[in-house]
Amino acid sequence: MPDGLKYLLIFIALVVVYTIAKVVGYMRQSERQWKQVDKSKLKEWEDDDY
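Now predict its structure.
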């Protein structure tokens, strides 16, 4: 396998791992924020059918 291809595959793998880590981090942050919401002020609403 050419050296350039090996480095490219390593770079792609690092980008994929970084992206997955960021998504998981944002999901955890979203969950924390949702738990802090005052749910008594939320309103029930229905989508309008057109």
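The chain has a mean pLDDT of 91.
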